[in-house]
Amino acid sequence: MIEVEPGRFEEMVASGLDGLPEELGRLMSNVAVTVEHRAGPPGLLGLYEGVPLTSRTTGYAAVLPDRITIYRKAICAICQSEQEVADQVRRTVIHEIAHHFGIDDRRLRELGW
To answer: Which CDD domains does the UniProt entry name for this protein (predicted)?
Structure first.
């Protein structure tokens, strides 16, 4: 386990988002990415809550943004170095954004994520 300061961890999350292909970032719609510094639900490194883009219909309007939460303590608990944390943050951000695009865990496993 390694402890990464909250500000540094948030920079890692921002870097993970900045590393997305530009065209993918443009397709993201009505989603907020946040960092939770307290322990999250057991076994979760990140969580997507919302209506995936593939499930939105013409009736999708005037709703709160989808939310992607990245759990700092959970990620730090499984890593041994700051580089491992940065790598895991990147994987977690991509994983949760995939859910925003309607890709489920089964398909992510098939794709090697």
So the answer is: MMP_ACEL2062
